[in-house]
Design brief:
- There is one protein chain.
- By secondary structure, this protein is α/β, with parallel strands linked by helices.
- It has three domains: 4-89 and 180-210, Periplasmic binding protein-like II (D-Maltodextrin-Binding Protein, domain 2); 92-179, Periplasmic binding protein-like II (D-Maltodextrin-Binding Protein, domain 2, 3-Layer(aba) Sandwich), CATH 3.40.190; 213-279, Alpha-Beta Plaits, CATH 3.30.70.120.
- It has helices at residues 15-24, 55-60, 71-76, 120-129, 163-167, 191-211, 225-231, 260-269, and strands at 4-9, 37-39, 45-50, 66-70, 81-86, 92-99, 114-117, 135-138, 154-159, 170-179, 181-186, 213-221, 239-242, 248-256, 273-279.
- The strands form three sheets. A six-stranded mixed beta sheet has the order 2-3-1-4-11-5.
- Strand 7 (114-117), helix 4 and strand 8 (135-138) form a beta-alpha-beta unit.
- It is flat and about 75 Å long.
- It binds adenosine-5'-triphosphate and zinc ion.
- Adenosine-5'-triphosphate (ATP) binds next to helix 3.
């Protein structure tokens, strides 16, 4: 039977959440994790564990059908793959940083400077777009130590918290691109594989929707029921049921995680009581 081959990072910052995502989508992996290959027991899917840098090429070459990788990796080279879904984890940015004692006014600072990076493609595009003439020095790891040892004047690298920069006496001066983990796909999948992919994406989207929403239950005094309902921007309209106690109703709905605190305050002001906010496991929208 046809199955879809998914390339994920073997071991690194994206591995755990990539496997976690597939598990939340209901996919059970047999014969242990972190081998070269593992097979799902309840879904037509096989996982290939690879170095993250190799994933786009494997997908482009049809060895894998889809892959989970950071946008930074696919931005670096033009691979013939489609980015089909952002996953919301592995968030970071690609930034230029210079020694913290340097004065910095604008990107023209980099004219005539030597910049160390593992991302020459993205950096060159940025420099060209600003007509800056700088020397790009490609190194594959520990980019952040380059200025300290006199190898370069500046670096262009992945930043997440910025603590690595600080501990190397550097400051971030330009954010060139943002990045997060994404699903990429070969652009010539067979119809049978496309069908499997659609099924997988449907599940993943349900997991994502559930994560960004909460289920809310509350007791509302009937005189404020209309205002309370207007405050809750639910999926469709909230469920309202009478409570045993006269003059009160129970209201059930779904809230976006990010609008949660603001709405809770308004609901309290309108006399809502017994407010319960509950995580949702899966949400089919
Ligand atoms: P591999 O052995 O697979 O080549 P790696 O060392 O190149 O691993 P990791 O450091 O595990 O890669 O990072 C994988 C991805 O995680 C990066 O390409 C990037 O998309 C993302 N990421 C998120 N935050 C950070 C960070 N602070 N530093 C590095 N990568 C990060
Ligand atoms: Zn890598």
């Amino acid at each position: 039977m046809e199955k879809i081959k998914v390339a994920i990072q073997k071991s690194g910052r994206l591995s755990e959440q990539s496997i976690g995502l597939l598990k939340e989508a209901g996919i059970s992996l047999t014969n242990g994790e972190r081998r070269l290959v593992s097979l799902a027991s309840n879904f037509p899917l096989e996982i290939l564990y690879l170095r993250d840098d190799d994933i786009p090429q494997y997908v482009a070459d049809n060895v894998a059908d889809i892959g989970i990788v950071g946008e930074n990796v696919i931005l670096e080279k033009d691979y013939p793959v489609d980015t089909i879904l952002k996953l919301g984890f592995g968030k970071c940015r690609l930034s230029l940083a210079i020694p913290k004692t340097e004065e910095y006014a604008s990107a023209s600072y980099f004219n005539g400077k030597k910049i160390a990076t593992s991302y020459p493609g993205i950096l060159k595009k940025f420099l060209d777009s600003k007509s800056i003439d700088a020397e790009i020095h490609v190194i594959s790891g520990s980019v952040e130590i380059a200025p300290g040892i006199g190898l370069a004047d500046a670096i262009f690298d992945i930043v997440s918290s910025g603590s690595t920069l600080i501990s190397n006496g550097l400051k971030e001066v330009e954010v060139v691109a943002g990045s997060e983990a994404v699903i990429i796909a070969n652009d010539q999948m067979t119809p049978a594989k496309k069908k499997i992919l659609e099924k997988l994406l449907f599940r993943i989207k349900a997991v994502q929707a559930a994560k960004s929403n909460k289920y809310i239950l509350l007791n509302a005094p009937n005189e404020n029921l209309d205002s309370i309902i207007a405050t809750i921007p639910g999926m469709k309209s909230p469920t309202v049921m009478p409570l045993a106690e006269p003059g009160w109703s129970s209201v059930h709905s779904v809230l976006k995680e990010n609008e949660f605190w603001e709405i809770i305050d308004k609901l309290k002001d309108l006399g809502a009581q017994g407010i319960l906010v509950i995580p949702i496991e899966k949400m089919i929208v």
